[in-house]
Every structure is written in structure tokens, then in C-alpha cells.
Amino acid sequence: MKLRLGYSPCPNDTFIFHALVHGLVSDADAPQLEYDVLLDDVEALNQLADEGQLDVAKISYHAYGYLADRYVLLRAGGALGQGVGPLVVAKEPQLDVRGKRVAIPGGRTTANLLLQLWRPDDVELVQLRYDRIMPAVVAGEVDAGLIIHESRFTYPSYGLHALVDLGTWWEEQVGELVPLGAIAARRSLGAETLARLTRLLRASLEHAWADPSASAAYVAEHAQEMEPDVRQRHIDLYVNRYSLDVGEAGAGAARALLERGHQKGLFAPVPEPFFAVG
Question: Is there a domain that residue 103 lies in?
Fold first, then answer.
């Protein structure tokens, strides 16, 4: 079976998926799965999944609210935890964002949902690819930016200031982990294949943890201009025990986020269970 698989070029994803897509892990007594791999920005992956172009995809938890009728989440491979949330940054350290133009990394990113739950209603949202946001703030194209991924570590070098950490806000207001992204797979793949994918993802992550040097070149290749220490900090922050299994805490965080998205009128109630058995 060949699966169309999409994930981002960010270090946490390439670190997790390296062994899987390079055939370094297998499921005993079962034919090897093959993958047609696409690496793209998470908002692009959200859109491609919505269009039905991917069998398995890293998506935003926010996006799952629109996909739950066709996809189910895998318990491994995702990004959630504590201290992992997006930041709103600006050149002015005390900027009041009401009435201002704020760049966001995509309408269905979890970052945008968190912003909508927090922000005043009169903010003007401007959608940009995540790596264009900080340059746009610096250039004055927008007043503030909602940043994700490695930008969390590099924004001070742009002369920007954090106005709010939406992850901290979520943890304090809701008391849950911050659910950022998950691996979604077509429900039509069936329970056996979904369970296999979960086992293989866990094995791929365990392989990466056991031998980080094996994936280092692959991670660096797709991280582009990112400095080695930033790549490592990115992996250390976003790849954690919840990447191996979301657990009850992770499932509870996903439930809390999706319930609030529904309450805001963004999508229909999301039926449970969200996660495939595996």
C-alpha cells in the first residue's frame, strides 16, 4: 500500500518522520508501507487534507474541526505540551492590538484559533506564510504578528517584543496542555492500517531519540537557514512524551480546544473519539 503523506519541513516533523520514510522501521509480519512524501507549511497541509489530497497529514488541531468526518487523529507524532504556544509580537513592546493589523500564519492554524479566543474582536487579520510574518512586522506592513515554529526562538533578533504568549494564556485560563498539531489519517484506511501507522510512528520517534545523528542531515536539509542550536531547541520543545502518545492529558486538551472552536461557531460539534486505537 502506498500512502500520500504530508508533513512540514520543521525540525520536529522531520525528526519524527525520518526513520519512517527512509524505511528504517517496519511492522513485523506485515508488508512494508510505501509513502509518497510531500513537505509543506502546516496551513498548506490543512488545505490539502481538506481537499482530500493526502492520506496521512500533519495538521493543526484547529483544522481537525473541519476534517473529523473524513479523518481521524493518530495518538503518536503530534505536537502539544506546555510552554509551546504561539506568540503575538510587535515592534512596540506595549502595543494595544485593538484596531490593528495582525499577521497570522493561516486561518485554520491552532495559533489563529487561540488568537480568536483571546483577541479583541476588532483586530484585522492578514494571512501570511509563517516565515513571512516577522519580516512583515519589521517592514511595517502589519502592526503585529502571530508567530509559530522556530520564530519563537528568533523574534528578538528582529528587534521584536512579545505582547502575549497565547500558550501561557491558554494554560492559565483553561488549565490544559496546548494542543498544536496532530497526525490525521483517512478513516477509510481502516482500523488495522491506522493501528499500524501509529505503531510505525512511535517506532520512528524512538529510533530518532535513540540515534539523533541518523536524522541530523535530513533535519538540517529541510530546516534551510535555521541555525543548529535553533533546530535543537525546536526539537527539544516540540518533540516530547506527548509526541509518543497523547495520553489522557493530550486528549483532554484537544477536546477543550475543539469544544471552544465549536462554541465560537467555527465548525460543527466534533464527534468522539478523536483518536484512532493504536
Answer: yes
* Nearest-angstrom CA–CA distance, 7 and 250: 20
Residue 148 lies in a domain: yes
- Are residues 75 and 213 part of one domain? yes
State the alpha helices, DSSP H only, in the chain.
11-21, 42-50, 61-67, 110-118, 133-138, 151-154, 166-174, 191-210, 212-223, 228-238, 241-244, 247-263
Residue pLDDT, tens place only, 237-251: 999 999 999 999 999
- Catalytic residue, chosen from 18, 62, 149, 207, is 149
Residue 267: count other Cβ atoms within 10 Å of its Cβ: 17
| 108, 235: one domain | no
Q: For residue 41, give Cα distances in angstroms to 16, 33, 59, 130, 214.
A: 16, 24, 10, 8, 24
DSSP 213: H
pLDDT in tens, 35-92: 999 999 999 999 999 999 999 999 999 999 999 999 999 999 999 999 999 999 999 9
DSSP state of 70: T
Task: Please give the tally of structural domains in the chain.
Answer: 2
Q: What is the domain range of residue 127?
A: 87-174
149 is catalytic: yes
